[in-house]
Write a structure and sequence with these properties.
Layout: H1 2-7, H2 17-31, H3 34-43, H4 49-71, E1 77-79, H5 83-92, H6 99-118, H7 122-128, H8 131-152, E2 156-159, E3 163-166, H9 171-188, H10 194-206, H11 237-240, H12 244-271, H13 285-302, E4 307-309, H14 313-318, H15 324-337, H16 341-345, H17 349-364, H18 375-391, H19 394-411, H20 420-434
Antiparallel strand pairs: 1-4, 2-3
Length: 436
């Protein structure tokens, strides 16, 4: 036992087994909503939901175990919100790629991320993207996720006159709206696992009202669903066709994953005192990034979207988690959840609206960090934020935001503020539209 704890970076003189394991439970409860949401979102592409449930857990367990034993850090990983929406609603339903082709893009992105991490060149990519633009991307994704939640819950519907409008108050939309309010209240008073509990409560309420459909011979516990319908089903034909849009997709996935992970690791580590107080450097950052890259690669092989480090890990860190024992505990709870797929698979879209909307709230809080006093910063950021929900495309938001950033800076004489990498990216994006 002592040897295992040592492998996790656990020091009995500095850490407590009880505290670390409770921190792991806290993190799991806070992020466990992904077990209900991910199969629903990716299931929109035609993928088997039962297989998606198992794949979601498999990818989370693999990535989190690498984080526990290799990075020895208290972070948990799973298929990322926003990234799964990009996979389903942008790549497949909007751009027309098959889910097999989208999985190939995820796999390729994971391999590239591994290489970038191994050769330690990620800093050049990170430093090339202006800080305000990074904040605006988070806000845009948050609005897009919230939009999806409201749409899936029936709170907003299509309109010929105004594109979208408030939908009729049906039983389903009332449950969705009540879930948003309940989840918001629980989060406001600091309830651990607020999103998870809200989903469960709304699902139970939906049973007698006919919103939650129980199959015949329903059982809470069952053997894990097979991943066979989706595992190892990547289609690499787009790589051979030299489709420039496809390569933009891979870059976008890499970009989103990279900054999601870095933002979480840097923010959480700094607030928890895990960063060097003099330099701000985080011990083990490169290893943590490798766990993310390995998780994404493994997830694509299993049949799920990009894996990323969860910001909900901060709840476990706040509860005292400091070592790999915390992340190991999260992985073990995910394994236990593997046998409760019937419970998660009956959850209706109306019950997950709260998670999507409230995660959107969390992601949009970075808008306060954007410098709107400088129009050369404000305009590109505003374009990025608006484009994502209005075009239902995260990639278009990133592309147009970065392209407009370069053009506005150049046209106003602020070209010296741009890195050579930004010029290269802008040229790449222009070619994307020319040959589209």
């Amino acid at each position: 036992m002592k040897k295992i704890l040592a492998l996790l970076g656990f020091d009995p003189l500095k850490h407590s087994v009880k505290v670390e394991m409770m921190a792991g439970l806290t993190t799991f409860l806070t992020m466990s909503y992904i077990l209900a949401v991910n199969p629903l979102i990716l299931g929109e592409t035609g993928m088997d939901k039962g297989a998606l449930f198992t794949a979601t857990i498999a990818a989370a367990v693999i990535a989190t175990l690498v984080m526990a034993f290799y990075a020895k850090m208290p972070f948990a990983l799973a298929s990322g919100m926003g990234l799964n929406a990009f996979f389903a609603y942008t790549l497949v339903l909007t751009m027309g790629y098959t889910w097999q082709e989208a999985l190939a893009a995820v796999l390729f992105e994971g391999i590239v991320f591994i290489l970038l991490t191994f050769f330690k060149v990620r800093e050049a990519i990170v430093n090339a993207i202006p800080l305000n633009l990074r904040y605006s991307i988070s806000v845009g994704i948050g609005l897009f996720i919230a939009y999806i939640g409201l749409k899936n819950g029936g709170i907003i519907v299509a309109s010929d006159a105004t594109v979208t409008t408030l939908g009729p108050w049906t039983v389903s939309s009332l449950i969705a709206g009540a879930g948003v309010l309940l989840g918001g209240v629980l989060m406001a008073v600091g309830v651990r696992g607020a999103l998870f509990y809200t989903i469960i409560v709304m699902t139970v309420i939906g049973i007698p009202l006919g919103v939650t459909q129980l199959p015949e011979n329903f059982s809470l516990v069952s053997l894990p669903e097979s991943m066979a319908p989706i595992a190892f089903h990547m289609d690499f034909s787009r790589f051979l066709s030299l489709d420039i849009n496809y390569y933009v997709v891979v870059f976008t996935l890499l970009f989103m994953d990279l900054f999601d992970t870095l933002g979480t690791l840097i923010g959480a580590s700094t607030s928890a005192g895990m960063a060097d107080p003099r330099t701000g450097k985080i011990h083990g950052l490169n290893r943590a990034l490798m766990a993310d890259a390995v998780g994404t690669t493994a997830g694509a092989l299993c049949g799920t979207s990009t894996v990323t480090t969860y910001v909900e890990s901060t709840t476990g860190i706040a509860a005292g988690g400091r070592t790999g024992l915390t992340s190991l505990t999260v992985a073990l709870f995910f394994l236990v959840a593997l046998f409760f797929s019937p419970l998660f698979l009956i959850i209706p879209s109306a019950a997950t609206t709260s998670a999507l909307v409230l995660v959107g709230v969390l992601m949009t809080k970075t808008i306060t960090k954007i410098d709107f006093s400088d129009f050369t910063e404000a305009v590109p950021c505003f374009i990025t934020i608006l484009t994502m929900p209005f075009t239902a495309s995260i990639s278009e938001g990133i592309v147009l935001g970065m392209l407009s950033y370069v053009l506005v800076k150049v046209c106003t004489g602020h070209y010296k503020e741009l890195s050579i990498v930004m010029y290269i990216l802008a040229a790449f994006f222009i070619l994307k539209y020319v040959f589209n």
